[in-house]
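Supplementary Methods S3. Input chains for the assembly prediction are listed below.
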Amino acid sequence: MPDTRYAVAAVLVAAAVTWGLRALPFAALTPLRASGTVRYLSTRMPAGVMVILLAYCLRDVPVTHARALAPLAALAVTVGLHLWRRNALLSILGGTAVHTLLASLVFAP
Amino acid sequence: MPSPIPSPARAAFKDSAGAGLGFIPLGLAFGALVTQSGLDWWWAGLSAVLAFGGSFEFLLIGLVTAGTPLVAIAVSAFMVNVRHVFYALSFPLHRVTGRLGKTYSTFALCDEAYALTTGEQARSWPGRRILWLQLYLHLYWAGSAVAGALLGSLIPEGVTGLDFALTAMFTVLALDAVRDLRGDLPTPVLALLSAVAARLLFPDGMLPAAFALFTAALLARHVTTGRKPSHA
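Predicted structure tokens for the full assembly:
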């Protein structure tokens, strides 16, 4: 365990930066809500942000390597389940189960 | 939709279930990693409650065990979490009432809270339902982080890959959000191109670069398509 005061301070620093990033833009951006451009952005942003976060999660998948089959198969299962049943719980559980099985048993490091 | 109006707390509990299922395995994994890295179990809870933001918290474990200077931690937190700046554009904070409510709502504005409250199904949600949803998500994360830290040693040695829950969660959220766009295919395509370009051009700062590129692309598209009025 690193020095306790340092470990706590690190959390406090991370918390302050994160909260600042979450709270301060409301003061700066709220007056812009009435603008057409901001409304254009805000209706399209949620979908784009989720696509980017998904791409970020997959950024280190070694696509030229057999190990990539675990996340890619799990992704296909997640998408397939979700298009089929539209049940978020089922899709997340199914995809995670496939990935854990493949990563632990077939492509064990 | 069923007709009886549920209480905000109960409705929010149902809303939170899908994301909660993604949070709990991840929180357990986070907690287990904290104790495996030599940090005390309570540190997992402290981080989960105060620095509530999963992706950076995973990173923070490594930074703290390496004794990274606090300034460098602040810069990393900024880079990983700067995407939240964009959330203020569409998160319905105006529906949350009271100073305390708004304070908590911004504090607990994680990716999943943003995704759930900006979707089409959430247009009618009152502020209380949004706040309850955020509280449930916060509790799932903190509770599973502490549980993972205390139980971490029980996970069998060879079991890996539970972290895919995060990827699966964003897959589901992306599919639902793209469906809400009703055939507006250029938006997810621009987002994907922004992500790929950011990955290739700025491998160390992929997330903020991708968000900036995507915002710029949307603005350019808005200008070139003649500023048609949008139906917000």
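Residues 58-109 of chain A form one domain. Chain A touches chain B through 74 residues (CB under 8 Å).
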